[in-house]
Fold:
Amino acid sequence: MRITGKTVVFPVDNIDTDQIIPARFLKTISKAGLGDQLFYDWRYEANGAPKPDFILNADSAKGAEILVAGANFGCGSSREHAPWALTQFGFKAVVSTSFADIFKGNALKNGLLPVIVPPAVHAALIQAPGVVVTIDLASQTLTMPDGTSTQFPIDAFAKHCLLEGVDELGYLLKQDAAIAAYESRRVGSVNTLA
Amino acid sequence: MTKPRTIIEKIWDSHVVSQQPGAPALLYIDLHLVHEVTSPQAFDGLRRRGLKVRRPDLTIATTDHSTPTTPRGLPIVDKVAAAQVEQLEANCREFGIRCYGLSSDKQGIVHVMGPEQGLTQPGMTVVCGDSHTATHGAFGALAFGIGTSQVEHVLATQCLLQTPSKTFAVRVDGSLKPGVTAKDIILNLLSRIGIGGATGCVIEYSGSAIRALSMEERMTVCNMSIEGGARAGLISPDDTTYQYVSGRPFAPKGAEFDAAVALWKTLPTDEGATFDREISIDASALEPMITFGTNPGMGISISAPVPDPGGIADPLERETLKKALHYMDLPSGKPLLGHSVNVVFIGSCTNSRISDLRAAAQVFKGRKVNPNVRVMVVPGSQQVKAQAQAEGLDKIFRDAGADWREAGCSMCIAMNGDQLQPGEYSVSTSNRNFEGRQGKGGRTFLASPLTAAASAVTGVITDVRTLL
Structure:
């Protein structure tokens, strides 16, 4: 998995999932159609017209596949609608100095890479909005236009699943014998509600 | 002698099904709570693969988020919400899951319903597609929020792939002063560590002030662990816990209960166990807390001034605070006391239990809501509602001029039609003050039920101690 794409820079800390997709859009029972609702209240006026000063509405943001955002991206609610909306909009990676735990897990399950970079690299990306960078999952590197590259951490199992096309639920289902053995060890356990 | 362990490690160790090299642990889940918003796509996934729910007996659903708080006999006006609520009930019928739906007398906010039914018990692993699942940690359970993919995983296998979190000890000692509550403890912690301050951690709350809290107060504290970024927050069980669980519908009975208590008594953190991080709070020094900004970590003592962005060195942090104060349309350097309020919301999985309603009623009794303020009191569950009505609390709220509603998440998440109008200010007992959380353009001050009720009566942000 290798992404070479343009960045769009949104240097705000603590962007919560209520901003990524407001709760009123969570009444859907489907995963589809959420890209239009991404950052809705920051992106649109009350009458539905795009806000001219919001970064994702700028011409420079068209076709951007990498979102560079502030620290603790994705905090708040556990809604997986947040990575669904980001990927449906066209993002393939979010770059920040840190991510909220639940968002990070949800993103990886949807092929959206949460890329954690050191503050200096983050600052350089903020200074140069719209640059084309390459994110390579196999080597866990982000490469800047000048060729300098930075390693980023990523959950080893999630990386394996993404690179090898392993379906996590399929993996879990194969553990059936171990799960059944655990359940039989715990028959009559006080924690059983049956 | 074995190595001393925290309660977090004990629960983890007893729930590891298997540990394959190069993979996370397979963790068994004892209780899976389900609601209408984060489950439909997971049930669709099961249908696509032709899978069943592995343990419908350990899975229980209720409707809360999209659920109207208008009288239950009325149809759901919002067609999209109505379809979502109906879909939950249909999915539960199809997969054989108990569902406390709209017509059930057990319906309620999932984190209020679970404990009151005795579903939540010490030593359990509890998950729900909801970040406030940490609420159940009050019982000494490892309880955490998950996304919809993981909801599907648990439905299908009763397991999750998990890696252990860091451990974070929050010790709260001393006695709370009158007018200061569990909500103020957690808002104070969040103001110290910030909204990302506990990311990657599971918190154990301990100390004499935590021991002195009732179960409902402990739930308020654990509920907001996620607002510091913590994966979960829990409290080692004690007699307060066992007494609360005893006699509830799903609690073990008779000799089984005694056996359970004997097991639960082995759960508390061992003497000498170590944590990755620690912080101490002096409860006796706390004042009522209130938030001024757009995340729950932006809180101050009620008489303290709103911080000045000019005093912050880090440029991104400074911009974040400036952006928050701009959204809230608040000056820095002045306390919030006396700031006018349009709405007061008393409810949510943080503060909608009977003790919260009693606290609010104590302030409303014999007083009137300020005519400029709209007040909504939303019980956490049908059971809480019935209890409040049996005690006459509904009459106190109505006589004061507050609106007494049906159970649900309501204006905490503003999905069900209960919401702020653009520009309105609300004092809310809920858990999030994010931009637009309570309605597009709405502005939220988070506080305790006492502070909310006091502000409802005066029409301005008020130190409840002046009314007690």
